[in-house]
Amino acid sequence: MSAQVLETTKAELKACQDKIAFLTDENKVILQEKAMIQGQFKQLQGSL
Known about the structure:
Layout: H1 3-47
């Protein structure tokens, strides 16, 4: 394997790792919002 291919592969791996970190953070936010909406829905159900 040439040094150029290795460097390209390393750069691609880093980009993938960064994307995974971003999606993990985004998923945490979505799960928090989901929990909040579920709580509001339960409150609404209770008031009906």
